[in-house]
Amino acid sequence: MDEFIAQTKYGKVRGKEQGGMLGFLNIPYASYKRFMPAQEPEAWDGVLDCTKHGHVQMQGKPPLLWWKGWENDEFTEEKGLNLNVWTPAADDGKRPVLVWVHGGGNLEGSIVNPAWEGPNIAGGHDIVFVNVSYRLDVFGALYLRDLLGEEYKYSGSNIDLDKVTALKWVKENIANFGGDPENVTLMGQSGGAKSVGNLITCPAAAGLFKRAVMISGCAHTMKTLETAKTIRDRFFEINGLKKEDASKLLTMSSEEIMAMSEKYRKIHSHSNGPVIDGVVYEEHPLDYIAEGKAGFLEAVYIGYCREESGGFWNRTSKDPEARRNSIRAKFGKNAQHMIDVYYDPQLKENAEYEAYRNVVNHFNYANESVQFAEALAKAGIKTYAYRFDFEGERGPVHLSDLPFYFRSNRDNDPHDSHPEEFDYMNDIMNPALIGFVKNGDPNHSRLPQWKPYTDPDNGNRMYFGENSSAEPFSLSTYDHDVEFLEYYL
């Protein structure tokens, strides 16, 4: 048997040797029509060549930091959804499986990035690594059910249903790539972590994974139905589109729709997310967890960087009132609290841009991460909480932790944030993640004892840094005066 060929439900695929693993790239896992739920891909005859990266889901251009080093710049809706698999061997090994959901705020990003590939994170660990593409921006999260009819009832949440479809593909096919379909960990960073948090509370995803890793994000970008409709109506108004003309979106080019989204984003900067519509998501994520519906989870690994927003903005101050308006546009009903508690008081002692960073640090990442971890621990789910404090070259900002999980370096890290003297952080953080993937426990010999939370006050939070420590921390320590959902109208 050819060691580079594996069988899927839809046909055979040929991979290649890559970094000591077998890589199968650009495997089709679903097709779709615009705003409609994903469908099974067409089967193929013969052996499909899966030795090169494929297309990228439609998104804004030019690309930012996700694509350095890729070999294809095709942005399209036309070719469906794809995924990549890296495995030690396409045999019957029943290895633990790690499924990676890329970041990008659910607006951008791709599975084509040399820094975040399987051999980096999984090489030598005897696990299978999968990363999945999914629809982005309005293509995956524009709510149209009330305008276009019941066949579009999933339109506001296809962005996450695509990931459910990918997890079902893993369930049905990963055994042929040497993986164990009953031992799947779902992992994401930033927008990907928000998706992982969402899927913990998605009935259709229950049982498709048993562990979850959320790096800099959780389920707080989910939208109420009222919020989703308001966003949609504003999108139409800004672009001069009447509700009765919503069907025009079905025949416009991808580029036209993308231009409309970019015009909208110049005014409204909230994160993208699915809808609590009673179809895909039934209720508020914290209520879902409190009712014990996430009990299929064995364990969770969740945390954030101490200075998340430091990676987003340059040191340029803006007019305070203009910034307050930006906060109102991003945080909805939570905005005034953000201004009164986290923004205006900081203006007295810090530069304006520092005051805004304080808002984003607390609300987009720290507050929600801790609150979500509290809910999971209250539900009896073993919860490992952490904060990334390593200063390095850039400080503990958004994305600065990811190279250490992936063991990236200057040769394959597009952020150039990982000089060789930081290798010891690889030796702390990558084994912690892999241990969690294999057996639900991140503890290893180079870390202090990391006690999981079994209730909000019974556990230790890990502080990753030059001298990592695990210290008591109450998961009830967050701002209780804000709604968990980021953009709530």
Could you walk me through the main structural features you see in this protein, from its secondary elements to its overall organization?
With 489 residues, this protein is an alpha/beta fold. 29% of the residues lie in helices and 18% in strands. The protein contains 13 helices and 18 strands. The strands form four sheets. An eleven-stranded mixed beta sheet has the order 3-4-8-10-9-11-12-15-16-17-18, sandwiched between helices. α9 packs antiparallel against α10.
Question: Spans of 5+ residues with little confidence (pLDDT < 50)?
Answer: 64-71
User: For the report, how would you describe the main beta sheet?
Assistant: 11 strands, mixed
Number of helices: 13
Briefly note the structural class of the backbone: alpha/beta
Termini separation comes to 58 Å
Oligomer: single chain
- What would you call the shape? globular
Radius of gyration, whole Å: 22 Å
**Can you count the beta strands?**
18
Biggest sheet strand line-up: 3-4-8-10-9-11-12-15-16-17-18
Beta-strand proportion:
15-25%
Helicity level, as a percent range? Answer: 25-40%
Please state the average pLDDT score. 92
Write the layout of secondary structure elements.
Blueprint: E1 5-8, E2 11-14, E3 16-18, E4 21-30, E5 47-49, E6 56-57, E7 75-76, E8 81-87, E9 95-101, H1 118-122, E10 128-132, H2 138-141, H3 145-148, H4 158-173, E11 179-189, H5 191-200, E12 211-215, E13 223-224, H6 225-238, H7 254-265, E14 275-276, H8 285-290, E15 299-305, H9 320-331, H10 335-347, H11 352-378, E16 382-388, H12 402-405, H13 423-439, E17 460-464, E18 469-472
Parallel strand pairs: 2-5, 6-7, 9-10, 9-11, 11-12, 12-15, 13-14, 15-16, 16-17
Antiparallel strand pairs: 1-2, 3-4, 4-8, 8-10, 17-18
Helix pairs in contact: 9-10, 10-11
